[in-house]
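Note to self: the last two entries modelled the partners one at a time, which told us nothing about the interface. This time every component goes in together.
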Amino acid sequence: MINSAQLTILRSYARKPNPPVDLPESILFDHSDKTLTIFDTYPKSIFHFLILPRISAYTGDGYTERDLTSLRTLLKGGQEKAGRVIRDLEEAAKVCVAQVEEEMVARYKFKWDIWVGFHPVPSMEHIHLHVISADMVSSSMKNKKHYNSFIPKGDFFLTLKDVSEWLEAQPSFFRKMAELKSSEYEPRLKAELACFHENCYELFKTMPQLKAHLQEEWDKRMAREKAKRERLEKLKRKSGSKKAASPSASGTTADNSQASTSTLTAEDLVELEGSQKKRRKTDESDVE
Amino acid sequence: MINSAQLTILRSYARKPNPPVDLPESILFDHSDKTLTIFDTYPKSIFHFLILPRISAYTGDGYTERDLTSLRTLLKGGQEKAGRVIRDLEEAAKVCVAQVEEEMVARYKFKWDIWVGFHPVPSMEHIHLHVISADMVSSSMKNKKHYNSFIPKGDFFLTLKDVSEWLEAQPSFFRKMAELKSSEYEPRLKAELACFHENCYELFKTMPQLKAHLQEEWDKRMAREKAKRERLEKLKRKSGSKKAASPSASGTTADNSQASTSTLTAEDLVELEGSQKKRRKTDESDVE
DNA sequence: TATTCCGATAGTGAC
DNA sequence: GTCACTATCGGAATGAG
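The predicted structure of the combined assembly is written out below.
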């Protein structure tokens, strides 16, 4: 079988010994004994990471490289065997999500949704779990397939939550879902372009139009969050608090984006929003 | 009905009074009381002209502008009425063909086929007869529709000869052919790309490939003709003739092309080829 | 569903 | 089947000692 380096690059990362010293910082974001977390080379949102199971962590445990080729090959091994890998990826994803949220607050002073899931029909070999922020604002998000492959309501993106449920379900249901037939999933990528934002779902005929709209949605969201912070700051001043502003850290953003400036620190915000949450007993929309 | 200037530009030419003094030389090539011969703005071959019936020449004779909108509307008027216009266009086409052949010899020192015919489904309003040299070598020949719309064997291009035969045929046959249904003709423009040259008919997957091949065919044809001239010149020297070379005229070429140089004049060539034809009793391929 | 390159295909707007 | 512009769609190559 002839494969270009590009299609097997993830496997080459997954083969690295522990610690993966020869993986540059521009690729490797984090790692554990069992997983690697890497920056997606072509991020489709502001934050976009891939979690990979490390081959050496599983080959001593009854798995082959082939088992780890894709979600489909992994699920073929059965619920128990697949479940162990999926749970390891889930654990790494939780860490990654927490890191991304921390960086969201550091850079943008608010958190927003993060989608975690698999592609049923991947192009690159070696199973990879996507951790991607719910904005779809990125210069690498270029075509309909890119977009439709990440929208949870597009029926292509398989959330980790869904896959985890299959693993706990009746074997007959699991086997049905584990088929992951490309003939079933591929057509879904050709669906019309619909904005994924709640209370919008507007349709677009072209990618440039959709992208302009997504940028607008993102700009509006930032403006709303800024206004919210300013209301909170005002409230805080009234209540007599006296903390000063401080610069934020950096390191996880996978695409260039402009954070709005503010005189509130991340810590102030989290503190204030947390207290407000308790007071108002309402849902926050920043975490799925 | 809303039409852009581009779609009705031919009608605006056809409305010009006699003589059409305000039509620039870059557009008007020739005219008679009944017709205009204009350069095709986007020539699909080295030579490409359009023959138009002039509106004032027919409106006093029972025709409306609408009758002259297209071949289809003209034929709707019946065989006799359509025939008069077609014969006028034919007469102008004969003059045009002679002029083009003269210019072929002046510039390229040989003649090649000239196709004369209509498009059954035109885009521009006002009936126009195409007079186009059989080379399809032009920077304006850009897509499959352009190409397939002029190849006589492509079943789209209606030669003047064919249309003239309809006019003399049984009314039932005439009426059938006069329908010119776009649903019948349009699909023919999507046919595969086949070289139109006799003894070739090679298929091509892309326009750049076809165009490269057509350029090659043209270059080879020019080389063959040059070799032929040189053989003739040698023959002529042996027979003791002593005519000198002279430069050629210009004015009809509708696209930039490079003529091969030669020391033979057009007159020499025609004279020699004529005499050779008689001697060898073989076909020449330069004139149909 | 890796990207990139090339080219075909499709829709639009033109005054 | 007018053109020119934009964007989509569709295939093929992609590495490399």
